[in-house]
Predict the structure.
Amino acid sequence: MSGMVVHGAQWGDEGKGKIVDLLTEQANMIVRFHGGNNAGHTLVVGGEKTVLHLIPSGILHPGKRCVIGNGVVLDPEVFLAEVDKLGATGLDVSPGRLAVSYRTHVITTYHKLLDQARESALRSGKIGTTGRGIGPAYEDKAARVGIRAGDFLDEKLLAVKLKRALAEKNALLAGLYGMEPLDASKLLEEFLPLARRVAPYVTDCPALIQKAYESGQRVLFEGAQGTHLDIDHGTYPFVTSSCCLSGNAGPGSGSSPRYLDTVVSVVKAYTTRVGSGPFPTELGCVIGEHLQSVGAEFGATTGRKRRCGWLDMVLLRESVRLNGTTELAITKLDVLSGLTEIKICVAYKHKGGQVLYPPQEENALEGVQPVYETMPGWPGDIGSCRAWGDLPAEARDYLLRLEELSGAPIGIVSVGPDRAQTLRKS
Ligand code: IMP
């Protein structure tokens, strides 16, 4: 078996980019399997920062093959801007190295307009989407009216599909949201140059992945967002529109699940969330502000301030259960340095009792109260620790308690943004 999934165990922004970047050294091919440019992976290598939204971060490692799977929704404009930006630094971003599945759904102008119009029309109950057209593109996929990257190879078919979709979209844009309808020929005129540039990247990705397995290669599946933003198992309706669980690495790419042997669940040492929705351990006090500023908690995609709170083991336990975690990667432990005490939410008070897993009813998380355990903090900077034994005893105790409460072993601990600021527990 030779497939490894790296995914977010919270509400996204766990620092997956850095962990994927580290583990890429063990892989030959890196595959994205869901989400779109609502994601944002910030990588710091040798002090240099790169933010990627769509192209797998494995592209920064020469010689690694990168794949955008069918489970992704691809904005051609964003894809090409990343190709150009990376290409300008001298990286190989040719179709020989970077592939897009025939079956990857495409985000167009009307998806973005609808996403934004819908959000601004909602007075209360806004989801706080990234406004990138993600939800509307997945809706079209389910409604079987989507445009797929494979359609870029047949311009006549592409024109027919765009025109047909636009009739319905214009009814919504103009009729419901009072916007100017889009003109089909103008849209096609704008879209065709993009389609022509993406077309050479379109590849039979399931075959590519299978071939990699058969030749003994290791494939890394790079998750986006996080478990509690999952369309089914997240805090619905405050979720994204794709399946964010490790299990989607198979259907989202065309890989057989039989090959998946490792699931690395990435967890921030505290919790953050962007956008709306319940957040039981959110800190409205100075400690929340401290985490936000020390952790530089701003969304990599929208620049919004992230909401911050203590680590929530109820949510993490659920993540371990849903994803089949084989190891945890703990990120941003250094951000907790200097706090006198650190709290961990070990259970919720719910309906007069205590629960260890999130209640299943919609919006139940709005009404739960966290039950905290308090642990001592540690003074000083831990950014230069490179081995488990270098960490202060209190930091090690905190991590050991996380293992105990989550039921999953810790593999990697990150103590700063740079690739080098990482240690392995074992
Ligand atoms: P959408 O994915 O743009 O539809 O947004 C739906 C929800 O998911 C919003 O609350 C977003 O803030 C959140 N979201 C989407 N992508 C990410 C991400 O990569 N990190 C964190 N939150 C995200």
About this structure: The pocket of inosinic acid is lined by residues 12-13, 38-40, 127-130, 132, 134-135, 224-225, 229, 238, 240-241, 274-275 (CB under 6 Å).
